[in-house]
Amino acid sequence: MTEPDALLKSLRPRLRQALDHAENRVAALIPKWPAGSPAPIYTVDGKWHRQKDVWTDWTPGFYAGLMWILFEFTGKEEWREQAIRFTIPLEPRKFDREVHDLGFIFMSTYRRWFDLLAEGPEKEKVKSVLVTAGNTQSLRWKETGEDHYIYSFNGPQSLFIDIMMNIRVLLWAWQQSGNENLYNRAVTHARTTRKYLIREDGAAIHEGIFNPVRGEFRNLSTQQGYSPWTCWARGLAWAIYGYHDAYLFTGEKEFLETAELCADYYFKNPTEDGVPYWDYGAPNIPNEEKDSSAGAVIASAFLSLAETIPERSEKYLRAAAKLLETLTSDAYLTHEMPDHEGILTQAVYHKPKGWGVNEAVMWGDYFFLEAVQKALKLVE
């Protein structure tokens, strides 16, 4: 057993504790936030919250996705039933042309459901929902100019780093349907994102702005980062995870190289506990908030990268183990906070707006549990 494997195995009791804790927290949420009602987004003073101005409704898949992971972990039929109850109301979103987040919504729910089903009518219906979502997401296509991409909810002028996590639904739909247009748009989007939003040192920028009429690139921008020129930590996490997944779907080595370039930025800008500050360029580091949700996404991505690149698995496994050791500690896991409704605290949703700062966020809980799931599969 290699040293990183041994470290992960030593974390097994804490990972199991985190699983039990997550099960209790999600079970307690269901009566408060029932199926078919709007899903919570982040906590306020430890209580789940959904503001009236949601900015963009991108998170409901993570709530149901937690239930799918709990079913996969425990095998309890009640979790499968709850996961389906919370997933089915998301189906109308397959036609939602107002958001760039259908990958987040459907890959954490319907994709998990699909993977668990035997061949038959139910699986075909779930497949149809996913293929439709992929086609719908592809319609957010910026046609003008030389550079093309899936544009953000802000409009055709806006390219977000987050969308690297959402082109996965195009690539999945391409694999299932054979629609080459989905492949071409997803691959083109990834290349445009690499060109404008990934610096040569691997830093990820949140947003690029293009001329909405002629289409040429105008400037960098940000919605949630500190500045247009600094590396927003969750954006870096989306880039590592998203480019690795793009490689898995397409086999295009440039995407794996980009994932590794962004991972190297993480390694070259370390923090003591492994969890990044909310923005690598925030002015008051070390007196800035960490973002545990970025750490959770990176941990999950590193566990997958370790499998994809065996010759570098030790580096990625060691980093993932350190992150999970930190995130399962009393400082981040809420198991010693009986009044806290989230699983993982010290996340940041939107620092400029003051949303979900040093709180739990639904995607943080989801990707944390996904990372726990991946790690336990390695050691059990």
Q: What does this entry look like structurally?
A:
This protein has 380 residues and is mainly α. It has a single domain, classed as Glycosyltransferase. It is 51% helix and 7% strand. The chain is built from 14 helices and 7 strands. The chain has helices at 3-10, 12-29, 60-74, 77-87, 102-107, 110-116, 121-138, 168-177, 180-197, 233-250, 253-268, 292-308, 313-327, 362-379, and strands spanning 42-44, 47-49, 158-160, 207-210, 217-221, 347-350, 355-359. The strands form 3 sheets. It has a 3-stranded antiparallel β-sheet with strand order 3-4-5, covered by helices on one side. The radius of gyration is 19 Å and the shape is globular.
Please state the structural category. Answer: mainly alpha
Which geometry do the CA atoms define?
Answer: globular
Strand order of the largest sheet: 3-4-5
Rg computed from alpha carbons, rounded to a whole number of angstroms: 19 Å
List keywords for this structure.
single chain; 380 residues; mainly alpha; Glycosyltransferase; 3-stranded antiparallel β-sheet; two-stranded antiparallel sheet; 7 strands
